[in-house]
Structure formats: structure tokens, C-alpha cells
Amino acid sequence: MPRVTRGARGSVGEAVANACGESMTVQQEVIDFLACPESYGAPGTAVEIIETHGSLIFLHDERAYKLKRAIAYAALDFLTLDKRERACHAELRLNRRTAPGIYLEVRSITRRSDGRLAFDGAGEVLDWVVVMRRFPQTALFEHMALTGQLTPTLIQTLGAEIARFHAFAEVTPEFGGSAGIRWAIESNHQEMSRYPQLLDGETVQALYRDQLALLERQAPTLEQRRNSGRVRRCHGDMRLANICLFEGRPTLFDGIEFSDRIACIDVLYDLAFVLMDLQHHHLGALVPLLLRAYLESGDESPDCLPLPLPLFLSVRAATRCFTLAGSALRQSTPRARQEKTAQAQALLRQSRIYLLDHQALGLDFPQLSQTSPLSTRSQP
Length: 380
Prior knowledge:
With 380 residues, this protein is α+β, with helices and mostly antiparallel strands. It has helices spanning 12-15, 21-34, 81-95, 141-146, 152-168, 177-192, 201-227, 260-263, 267-280, 287-297, 309-330, 334-356; strands at residues 48-51, 55-60, 63-68, 103-111, 117-119, 124-133, 231-233, 243-246, 249-252, 264-266.
């Protein structure tokens, strides 16, 4: 089924369950409008809806319309119309850095004088959407990973593309450094601790302790990198589900727009997400190809290794671990829940392995080959 971003189909009612008061009522009108084929001038064409944590995506014809849900989490707040408008424009601006052919425009949803809703009308603005060009699910790198279609050439081209993106990204020294990684470690630990029925508590605590210990030893290196311009406005969520093959080239999309703390990070920490994700998909042989292409195409010296990559990889695996643990509890069938749980537990082990084998640098972890193969998409 065609798609444009991560997530799974879900109940539209559930999607706005966390919205409140008048905001929920108005946004439900907007959702009903976007779900109706007549709104696009093509009553005979169905609208497909994809739900993510922060958005609803309405797929119609060759376009995708992304609506920010009127919700607030720890890392984002879309409760007000002004905040959603700013987020839409930020998403368009930031993602055009890597995917200008996908991110097209921001449009308003307005109320006409007769009470009916319309795109970009003269009446009251009720909400905003980011309009994107659709691409097939088969173009996602995660799909390609699961079907054996990620080639060394594609991965090397991806490494060069990431290096180019990082080279031109805005330098943001007010973020990142040791404080930024400490915040990520603390946040991950707090989230993983919410799932004692899925994740072993002693292992979670040991991971937390060991990550903090390694952070303390590497803090000077992280600060040196921050002061030398290695902390930049990056993608922030650079895993395989957020990379696609578009017009024949690896393309990063769906970057973080709602949190400077998550997006403004060390460039190697940004890269670490896709390196970790390749290993999670049992494609470790592609990791050194990607890393080498990145180093050869950018301004990062190979002397930056091994520090601080093992810590970055470990923190990224922990982030993905708690995301999949939460996803497991939302699954509607026992089998799906078991699959998500197994993936979360494998990532917890993977996160610890990075810390225990510093020499591996995330380039070769034979220990990981003992984990069970992925049988479904590893996404919330």
C-alpha cells in the first residue's frame, strides 16, 4: 500500500483522543474534511489515512496531506493552532534541505461563509497541513532492507548524501555536547523503565549505569566536538524508515522539526541512528561501507574514531528499544505484540553490546547474529 511516512493505519477517533476541548472538536471537523474524497475534487478516489504519534497523513491521488494532531507530549506541543502552523512551516523548510521534490507546500484549511470547509479559503483558518508528493512503500529503505534490495552502491551513495547534508547544516553550539547526550540517556532510561513487563529491569539499569560512566569519560571529547562545530541542525531521526529512494537517489525525509534538542546534535550521533538500524536489520556488512563513504565525502576526519561512536550507537539503540516496547503494547494481536517485544529486547541487548565491545565501532558485531531475524517492519 502506498505511503509517505512511518506509522500504521489507525482509528481516526483514537488519533485525536488526547486532544482536548474546543481544539478537539474543531480538528475533528478538519479530519472529516481531509478524509472525504470530495474535498480534493475527486469523489471517486478513496482517501487512505496513516497515523503516527504526532500526525495524521491523508493520501489522495499523487499527494499526501500531513495534519499535526492537537496533542502534547514531552518532546512536542501541537495543542494550539499557532503552534501547528509554525510546526508545518518548520517541517517544510527543514525537510526541503534533503527532499525538496517531496515537500511541496503548506496549505490552510478554512471555513467558508456557508460553514463548509475548504483549502486556502478567505474565511477563518481552522488548521494547516504540509503537502507532500507521494512515493511507493517499496521505495523506503526499511522495506528494501527487509527484502534484500539495499545494495553496497546505494549505501555508499547514501553515505555521501548524508555527508553533504551535514556539511551545509547550520552549526548550533548551544545544543549537544555532553549535556545533550546526558539528556538522551536520562530520557531513554525513563522511557524504558515504563515497560518492566517487556524489558528486564536489571538490564535496563545496568545499561543506564554503563552509559553514564562512559559519558563521564568521553565528556571532554564531546565538548571539544561541540566547540569545533560538530553539533549542527541535523535530521534527528535518521533511520531506514525515514530514507527513501526518490527519483533514483537516496533521500532523507521526515526530519525532526518540533524539538531543537532532538535535532541539534553531533553529526556522528545523527549518523549513528542509521548505522545502528542497519545492524538491527542484520545488515552489518553494509555499515563500514556507509561509514567509509561518509568519512571520505565529508569533512569529518577518520581520527574522530573510535570515540564517541560506541556511546552514540548505544544511545540510539536504547531510543529505538523503548519506542518498539511502547508499540508492542499497542498491537491488536498476540503475534504482533510478540514480534515487537522481541525486537525491543534485541535492541536492549544491542545497546549493551556497543558498550561492551568498544573496539567493534559498530562495524562488526558477530554477537548480534544470534538474535532472531526481523519478520515485520520495525516501526511504531
